[in-house]
Every structure is written in structure tokens, then in C-alpha cells.
């Protein structure tokens, strides 16, 4: 039952095997995806035909188009990067504002508004997507009817994708930043005021640097959540498809190992961002 | 301690503005709009009337409510499976593994979460398909005569759903089990409790809040999942989110799609609410 | 107010009141702090001293009254515009900045030039004895060093007034003793006016030119440390500053300032009226006698010259080096007295249970009209 209590050998072996199997289950898909990015075959499946870097660097001359020459795929990576950057910056900005609002101030119905703030995390992503789709369409129609104005930018497209992802990623950012702000000693801000700083300067020079680890952590997670989002994006996407949408379409068509190559790229990106968010959490001055 | 409040009201307003804009424009109004649209019926081009027809349709057409029920039941099953598979692992991490092993196993559990769901699902496709790894291994071992197709059935969907959900079960379980004092287990053992009795009378009651919040989150995510059922289940996966997608994008019947969306939201909220009620927890405590 | 007269005072506080809803935290407090002096506000926790200090720093506005620094009223002036700097209770050093950046913070806010900042920071770090600490992180400093950096961060701005909010509270005893001496020395060197708040009487007595004793939102007495110790004006001050033997009694006869009184235990003593109230015959009194003003002897004959004499048995010995005391039980009333033991070594062999004779003068038996306020101490 515990490391400190005696356990019979067979039970230890069975338990150990179970744990090992579990982690095999956990890692197998990831390892397989990464490995088959290097398979010298046009299908990401058995048999293993030898090692190749074709799926990264082949220019299409041997009938294989590698990741670095696959224009549509690279374009969608670019779109995803753009969307993720916008979502990250927006959600961090609103997240900081929300954290100050809920941690520093009292106002009527605060508890109710806090509950409201948490809502986007418990609404299924598909539904967030369709509700924003429906609402933006209503606005477009209303503008058209009232002012004969065609609000093209509110049609499905990147702006809606950004807004859709922003709508729930902001809650996550708010929670992470609030947790850090709660640890902040208000005396530090008073000390800054006392040393001649104005209110905004005090926040800029003392509070924001204190929040930096949380901003980096929340930023990394926000970037990743946006980059990998599928459910909400699917409902709001227009003609410019972010990476997950392009990958999804390719997967349904049945694809070449170039998808493995992109996946490997995604895994490396995730690992880098994960590392960043974890390191920023440690070594933060209290 | 009261602070100088010059301009405090203004500050609150300035901070409140982005919050309420975000909430109104991206959450509240869109959902109200979703509800309104689900409650109308097109009687002529660009002419709509208030009606429950879209909801009636759901109950009249067996495909719809069967898909709905199937999604709910499969989600419950996936939740239970995740719990059964994840509990011993969480227990191992929280109570048996020590030091480095403990923290690295825990990190390993988080790993799949950092990788895109699409990539994870793709991994399972490579493993399970006819020309995939598992089929290959089975043939190599002589357990199968020819290629075995394991993709595009309910079991494949279940494998993928459990995989995707595991993190959300293991994290709350590990943290509640971690907070259980080892002394209690030692005392129970010392007093002659069997493993089963200790689990039933001490460990599980203590872990209950973690079990419930894990189950709520897993159920909610599974219910709203789209990728895993469509990719691993193929054309006949019959997942309710797929119905919503079809109504919106393929059939362009937004009224019907909105009604479906609202029904899914209701089910999801009802489950969360019941779960919180059963354990007397607050939403704030369950989320992180 | 005439400008010349006010220039002598760096801080003038006039009838300041601060109310939080129904609770009055600071009640009609007035005082002045002369230029270049070390002024302490001493009081138990909750007496309102922190509220008073926060009003001077500008984090709170008084409900009524006026605060002037160098003759200029500070009402409505935000904290960052006041010529006042403050050393916070937990120091509030910025953990994400280096030591030098902490010290430079205020200068940067003033828009000082880079060269000027560097020069002033280096000079200030040298002044507080940490010339090489500039590049260090805050968490690399010891408690005493943090203290000095917190003070340096303020002094580099050359404030008219430096406020210190119990900055020694977090230090261990030995370091605290050392920092007391250091702080007083530093203040004498730089000549800046210090206003220091504390609940620790020894900090206040050792360092200050003037001490205000605060209780329940009011100043009980303002004076130099000697005056507070030897000539307390209220029972609260007598009880709060230093140790005392203490009785509650009633005046039997009053003759000018001389009083004959009977304690509740039935002891008859001769005392002197102290403080502001008029002692009436039959009136209730608080009576204080310091342990060191009581003479002790093994023979009753030595005590004949004292107004007040007691014979008792040693109940307990509290050995503490130069500060050793004996607890003596009065044979007649059973009252316990604490007596300081002289340093001559004469009583080094004093035993528990031994009979001793005690005596002290009427002048050192301070009698205050009983008003209940002293109970708080």
C-alpha cells in the first residue's frame, strides 16, 4: 500500500508491469508519429523501408514533397503562428486587466462576475465556436439591413478564429496571472509610490516585473492552446486555414509522412513552450 | 487596511471595461443569439417565426436523439474507463513512487497534453490501422494470419478518448492522494486492515473530491470532443458534435444546429452542476 | 504660521483625527518634530501608530486636522509627491531588482541622469557600509544588510523626513541590538530627521531624542527617554515604559504632593503624586515602584531611613547577569515585589526562603489618579 509497508513480490511485479504498460500506452502514439517521419515510404505505416529525411527536405523531384517545400503546409504554419501570436497578446493583456480587477478591487456582484469569467472553460469548444459564428453573422446581417454596410471582416475567417480562441484562452490566462498577483506584497507598490513613482509607474516598474514569470508561463500555454486548437477553429475558419485544419484535411484524405514531419515539428514546439512555462514557474522570486 | 481611494472608482471602471466587453461580445450575447436562433423556424426566405420545431425535430428523428444518447453513454463509459485505468497510476505516483521517479512519472503523464490532440490521434491511427504497428506486431507474432483493421470502430474511439482524457483524471487524483497522510494508511494496516478494506474505507473516501472533479472534466471534454471520434471512428462514428458540424457547415441549417448546440450545452452544464452538487464543491475550486 | 518659526520643525502634526467607520484610530494627535532629531512613537499594537505613520507618508488621508512638512501642508498631496520616505515594516525591497537598482529606483523616477545616479548610489552604498553590494540580488543579502539597503534606498533621495515602521521587528535579538546602535549612529551622521515607530520600548529609549508614547489613538506623553522613564505623566506610561511593581490603592491623607495611602492588600505606603490628575483624600490610585529604586538588605536596621519598609521572604531568584532580580513576598500582606539586585556581589549567595528587608523612598513611589486606562498596558 505504501513504499514503507511490506508488499508481496507477485503483487509488486504485477503493479510494476501495469505502470510500465500504462506509460507504454501513453508514449506509443507519440513515438510512432515521430519515428515514421523518417520512413522511406510514401505511407506513414509499416513496413519500415529505411531512414530518410525526404519528408523534411525533398523538393518534390522524386515525387515526394518534404515539409520545407510544401507550400500550403508552410503557409498554414505561418497562419497559425500569426493567430497564436495575436491570441497570446490579446489574452495576456485582458488577463492582466482581469487579474487586477478580481484580485485588487471590490465591486458589486463580484462573485457572480467571477463565475461568469470561469464559464468559457466549461463550455464545449464546438459550442463556443458556433455561438460566435451565429452572433457575428447576426451582426453582419444587422449592419447590412440597417446601414447597407458589408462587414466582410466578421465573416468566418482569421479574425473570428482569433476571437473564438481568445474567448476561452483569456480565462486560463486570467487564472494563471491572478495566482501570481495574489502572492504580490502590496507593500512593494506602496514603497514605489513612496519613492516617487506615480500609480501607473509603480505598476509598470514593480508589479509587472513581479508578474513576469506568470506572464511567460501563461503566454506559453496560451500560444500552445491557440496553435493546437481545433474544435473552436473548425467552426470559424474561412479560406485561410491554420495548421490544425490543414492537417485534419490531409489526414482525412490519407496522407504521406509529411504529416509526421509536421507533427514532429509541433512536438518540438510544444516541448520548447512546455519547458519555457515550467522554467518560468521555478526560480521566481517570491 | 484602507488605501487612498482617489481614482479607485475610475480604475475599477477601466479594468471592468475589457472584461465585460469580452464577456458580452464573445460569451453572453453569442449564447443568447444561439438560443434565439434555435427557437425560430424559417417559413419563407428571410422570414422566420418563433417555434419549437428544431427541438421537436430532435425528439422525432431517431437518428438525432440516438446519436445524442450514444454520445452521452460513450462519454460516461470513457469517463469510467479513464478513472479505472488512471486510479492505480495516480496512486502509484502519489504513494509508492518516491523522489525523482515520482516527479518524472508525473511529468510523463502531462506530456501528451502538451502535444496537439491532432498529433496524438494521428499516432493512434498509425498504430491501429490495417497496415499499422499493432496489426504488424500481431502478424509477426503469428497471432493473426493477415492484416487486422482496428480503426473505425467504437473500441478505437474509446482508446483515443481515454488517452486524451487521462491527464485530466490523473492530475486531480494525484493531488488529492498526495494530501492523504501516509500515517492513516499505516495505522489502518497496523490495525489489521486488508488492502481492499483500506482502499474502500480510507483511500477512496479521501480521494472523492479528486475523483469527482476529474470525472466532471473528463466527461465534459469527451462530450464536446470532435477530432477523436471523427478520425478514429470514421464515417459512422455518430458523435453529437459531428451532427452539429453537419447541420452548420454541410446542410447550412443553422436553426437545427443551434438547437443541437444548446442541447449539448444543457447536458454538459447539467452534468457539471450535478457533480458539484453531489460533492458540495464550488466551480472555483474545481478549476485548478 | 510664520515661516521662520516653522522652519525649525520638519514635521508638525496638528489635531489629526482618523476614523474608520465608527472606530477612531487616531484621536486629536498633535506634535512637532524638530529638524535633525530622532523621534519615536512608542505604543502597543493597535494603538494607532501605524495609521498615523501612513497618514504622514500619504497612504491615508486624515479625517480632520493638518500635517505639515517643513511648514507646507501635506493634505491632498499624493504619497509620491511628499518629501518623505519610508522604511517599511517588511522593508519592501524589490526582489526582481539588484541592490543598486533598488537604491537607484527613486532617482530614476525623478529623471536623474545616469552618471548622477551611479555616483549617488555608489556613495550611498559606501555610506551604509556595503560598497560592493550593488550587483547582488536582494535574496543574497543578510537581514542586517537588507535593513541597510532599505534605509539607503530612502536616504539617497535626501528626504526631509525618514519614516521607519518597526524595521527591526523581523531581526533576531542580537542583530537587533547591533542595528539599534547602527541606526542611531547613521542618523547622527546624515542629520536627517527620523520618525520611528515601534512597540519595543528599548528601541525607542536607546535611539530617540524624543519619544511619544501612544495609547488608544492618543499621545499619553511626549518627552526625552529619561523623562518618560523617571517622570511618567500617566499611569499608562509608568506601566508601559520599563518594569514596575504596581499596586492599586486609596489615598488616606494628602499633604501637597505627599500622599499616605493604603494598597488593596492592606499595605500602608508613602508616595508622591504624579501626572496630571489631582489626588483627593480617599481617591483611588495606581501606584508604581521601579525594581531598581528598592533597596535590599539582610538587616532591618539599614532600612530605617526609608519611608517605606517591607520585610519578606525570597520566593524566587531571577538570575540574568547584570539584570538579576529577586521576587520577594511581603510577610504581612503576601504581596509579591520584584527587586533589582545590586551589582556589588553582596547578594550573590542569596537563597530562596531567606528573610530580607526592603526599603524605598516616597519620591520613588509614583501615585496616579486611577482612571482605568493603565489596565491596557
Question: What's the arrangement of secondary structure elements?
Answer:
The complex is a heterotrimer of chains A (286), B (288) and C (377).
Chain A (H helix, E strand, L loop, with lengths): L8 H28 L17 H4 L13 H34 L5 H13 L2 H23 L10 H25 L3 H9 L4 H30 L2 H6 L6 H11 L4 H24 L5
Chain B lengths: L7 H31 L1 E5 L2 E4 L2 H8 L1 H35 L2 H16 L2 H12 L4 H9 L12 H25 L3 H9 L4 H29 L3 H7 L6 H11 L3 H26 L3 H4 L2
Antiparallel strand pairs in B: 1-2
Helix pairs in contact in B: 1-12, 2-3, 2-12, 3-4, 3-7, 3-9, 4-7, 5-7, 5-10, 7-9, 7-10, 8-9, 9-12, 11-12
Chain C lengths: L2 H5 L1 E12 L2 E12 L3 E5 L6 H9 L6 E6 L2 E2 L10 E4 L11 H11 L4 H14 L15 H13 L5 E5 L7 H18 L2 E6 L2 H7 L2 E6 L2 E6 L1 H6 L4 H6 L4 E11 L2 E6 L4 E6 L10 E6 L5 E3 L10 E11 L6 E6 L5 E5 L14 E6 L5 E4 L8
Parallel strand pairs in C: 3-8, 3-9, 6-7, 7-8, 13-20
Antiparallel strand pairs in C: 1-2, 1-4, 4-5, 9-10, 11-12, 11-14, 12-13, 14-20, 15-19, 16-17, 16-19, 17-18
Helix pairs in contact in C: 3-4, 3-5
Care to describe what's here?
The complex is a heterotrimer of chains A (286), B (288) and C (377). Chain A has eleven helices and no strands. The radius of gyration of chain A is 24 Å and the shape is globular. Chain A is mostly helical and 286 residues long. With 288 residues, chain B is mostly helical. Chain B folds into two domains: 38 residues; 232 residues, MetI-like (MetI-like fold, Orthogonal Bundle), CATH 1.10.3720. In chain B, strands 1-2 form a two-stranded antiparallel ribbon. The N terminus of chain B is likely disordered. Chain C contains nine helices and 20 strands. With 377 residues, chain C is of the alpha+beta class. Chains in contact: A-B, A-C, B-C. The interface between A and B is large, with 86 and 87 residues.
Amino acid at each position: 500500500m505504501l513504499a514503507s509497508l511490506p508488499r508481496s513480490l507477485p503483487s509488486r511485479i504485477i503493479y510494476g508491469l501495469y505502470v510500465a504498460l500504462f506509460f507504454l500506452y501513453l508514449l506509443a502514439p507519440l513515438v510512432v508519429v515521430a519515428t515514421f517521419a523518417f520512413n522511406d515510404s510514401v505511407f506513414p505505416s509499416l513496413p519500415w523501408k529505411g531512414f530518410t529525411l525526404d519528408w523534411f527536405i525533398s523538393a518534390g523531384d522524386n515525387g515526394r514533397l518534404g515539409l520545407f517545400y510544401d507550400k500550403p503546409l508552410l503557409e498554414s504554419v505561418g497562419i497559425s503562428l500569426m493567430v497564436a501570436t495575436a491570441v497570446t497578446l490579446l489574452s495576456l493583456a485582458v488577463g492582466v486587466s482581469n487579474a487586477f480587477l478580481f484580485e485588487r478591487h471590490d465591486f458589486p456582484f463580484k462573485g457572480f462576475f467571477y463565475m461568469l469569467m470561469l464559464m468559457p472553460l466549461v463550455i464545449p469548444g464546438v459550442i463556443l465556436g458556433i455561438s460566435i459564428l451565429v452572433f457575428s453573422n447576426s451582426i453582419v446581417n444587422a449592419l447590412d439591413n440597417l446601414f447597407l454596410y458589408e462587414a466582410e471582416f466578421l465573416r468566418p475567417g482569421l479574425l473570428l478564429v482569433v476571437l473564438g480562441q481568445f474567448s476561452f484562452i483569456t480565462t486560463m490566462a486570467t487564472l494563471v496571472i491572478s495566482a501570481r498577483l495574489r502572492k504580490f506584497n502590496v507593500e512593494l507598490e506602496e514603497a514605489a509610490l513612496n519613492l516617487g513613482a506615480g500609480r501607473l509607474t509603480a505598476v509598470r516598474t514593480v508589479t509587472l516585473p513581479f508578474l513576469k514569470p506568470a506572464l511567460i508561463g501563461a503566454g506559453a500555454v496560451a500560444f500552445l492552446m491557440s496553435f493546437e486548437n481545433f474544435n473552436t477553429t473548425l467552426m470559424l475558419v474561412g479560406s485561410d486555414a491554420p495548421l490544425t485544419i490543414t492537417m485534419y484535411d490531409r489526414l482525412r484524405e490519407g496522407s504521406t509522412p509529411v504529416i509526421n514531419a509536421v507533427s514532429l515539428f509541433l512536438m518540438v514546439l510544444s516541448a520548447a513552450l512546455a519547458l519555457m512555462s515550467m522554467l518560468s514557474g521555478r526560480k521566481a522570486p517570491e | 487596511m484602507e488605501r487612498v481611494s482617489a481614482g479607485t472608482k475610475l480604475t475599477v471602471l477601466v479594468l471592468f471595461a475589457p472584461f465585460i466587453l469580452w464577456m458580452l461580445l464573445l460569451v453572453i450575447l453569442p449564447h443568447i443569439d444561439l438560443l434565439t436562433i434555435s427557437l425560430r423556424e424559417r417559413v419563407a426566405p428571410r422570414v422566420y417565426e418563433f417555434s419549437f420545431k428544431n427541438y421537436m425535430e430532435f425528439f422525432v428523428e431517431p437518428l438525432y436523439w440516438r446519436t445524442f444518447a450514444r454520445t452521452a453513454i460513450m462519454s460516461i463509459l470513457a469517463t469510467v474507463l479513464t478513472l479505472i485505468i488512471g486510479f492505480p497510476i495516480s496512486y502509484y505516483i502519489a504513494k509508492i513512487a518516491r523522489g525523482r521517479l515520482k516527479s518524472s512519472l508525473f511529468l510523463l503523464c502531462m506530456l501528451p497534453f502538451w502535444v496537439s490532440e491532432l498529433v496524438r490521434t494521428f499516432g493512434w491511427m498509425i498504430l491501429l490501422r490495417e497496415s499499422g504497428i499493432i496489426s504488424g506486431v500481431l502478424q509477426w507474432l503469428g497471432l493473426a494470419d493477415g492484416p487486422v483493421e482496428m480503426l473505425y470502430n467504437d473500441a478505437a474511439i474509446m482508446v483515443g478518448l481515454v488517452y486524451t482524457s487521462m491527464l485530466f483524471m490523473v492530475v486531480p487524483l494525484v493531488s488529492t492522494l498526495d494530501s492523504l497522510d501516509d500515517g492513516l494508511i499505516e495505522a489502518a494496516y497496523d490495525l489489521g486492515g486488508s488492502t481492499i478494506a483500506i482502499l474502500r474505507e480510507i483511500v477512496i473516501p479521501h480521494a472523492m473530491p479528486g475523483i469527482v472533479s476529474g470525472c466532471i472534466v473528463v466527461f465534459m471534454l469527451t462530450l464536446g470532443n470532435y477530432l477523436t471520434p471523427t478520425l478514429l471512428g470514421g464515417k459512422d462514428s455518430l458523435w453529437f458534435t459531428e451532427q452539429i458540424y453537419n447541420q452548420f457547415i454541410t446542410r447550412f441549417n443553422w436553426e437545427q444546429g443551434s438547437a443541437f448546440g444548446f442541447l449539448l450545452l444543457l447536458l454538459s452544464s447539467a452534468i457539471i452542476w450535478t457533480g458539484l452538487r453531489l460533492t458540495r464543491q464550488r466551480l472555483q475550486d474545481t478549476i485548478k | 504660521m510664520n515661516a521662520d518659526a516653522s522652519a525649525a520643525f520638519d514635521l508638525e502634526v496638528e489635531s489629526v483625527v482618523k476614523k474608520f467607520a465608527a472606530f477612531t484610530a487616531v484621536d486629536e494627535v498633535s506634535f512637532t518634530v524638530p529638524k535633525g532629531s530622532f523621534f519615536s512613537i512608542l505604543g502597543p499594537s493597535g494603538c494607532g501608530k501605524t495609521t498615523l505613520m501612513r497618514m504622514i507618508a500619504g497612504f491615508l488621508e486624515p479625517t480632520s486636522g493638518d500635517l505639515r512638512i517643513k511648514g507646507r501642508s501635506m493634505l491632498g498631496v499624493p504619497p509620491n509627491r511628499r518629501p518623505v520616505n519610508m522604511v517599511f515594516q517588511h522593508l519592501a525591497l524589490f526582489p526582481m531588482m539588484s541592490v543598486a537598482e533598488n537604491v537607484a529606483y527613486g532617482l530614476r523616477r525623478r529623471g536623474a541622469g545616469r552618471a548622477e545616479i551611479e555616483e549617488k548610489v555608489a556613495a550611498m552604498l559606501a555610506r551604509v557600509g556595503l560598497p560592493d553590494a550593488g550587483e547582488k540580488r536582494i535574496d543574497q543579502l543578510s537581514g542586517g544588510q537588507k535593513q541597510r539597503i532599505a534605509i539607503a534606498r530612502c536616504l539617497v533621495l535626501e528626504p526631509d523626513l525618514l519614516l521607519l515602521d518597526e524595521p527591526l521587528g523581523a531581526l533576531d535579538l542580537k542583530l537587533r541590538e547591533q542595528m539599534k546602535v547602527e541606526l542611531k549612529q547613521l542618523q547622527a551622521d546624515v542629520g536627517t530627521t527620523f520618525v520611528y515607530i515601534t512597540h519595543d520600548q528599548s528601541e525607542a529609549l536607546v535611539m530617540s531624542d524624543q519619544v511619544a508614547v501612544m495609547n488608544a489613538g492618543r499621545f499619553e506623553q511626549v518627552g526625552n527617554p529619561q523623562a518618560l522613564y523617571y517622570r511618567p505623566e500617566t499611569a499608562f506610561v509608568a506601566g508601559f515604559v520599563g518594569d514596575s511593581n504596581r499596586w492599586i490603592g486609596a489615598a488616606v491623607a494628602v499633604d501637597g504632593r505627599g500622599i499616605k495611602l493604603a494598597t488593596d492588600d492592606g499595605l500602608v505606603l508613602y508616595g508622591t503624586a504624579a501626572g496630571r490628575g489631582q489626588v483627593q483624600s480617599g481617591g483611588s490610585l495606581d501606584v508604581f515602584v521601579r525594581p531598581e529604586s528598592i533597596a535590599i538588605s539582610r538587616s532591618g536596621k539599614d532600612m530605617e531611613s526609608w519611608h517605606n519598609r517591607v520585610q519578606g521572604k525570597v520566593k524566587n531568584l531571577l538570575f540574568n547577569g547584570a539584570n538579576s532580580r529577586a521576587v520577594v513576598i511581603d510577610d504581612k500582606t503576601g504581596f509579591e515585589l520584584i527587586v533589582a539586585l545590586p551589582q556589588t556581589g553582596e547578594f550573590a549567595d542569596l537563597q530562596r526562603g531567606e528573610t530580607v528587608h526592603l526599603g524605598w523612598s516616597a519620591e520613588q513611589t509614583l501615585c496616579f489618579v486611577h482612571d482605568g486606562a493603565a489596565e491596557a498596558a
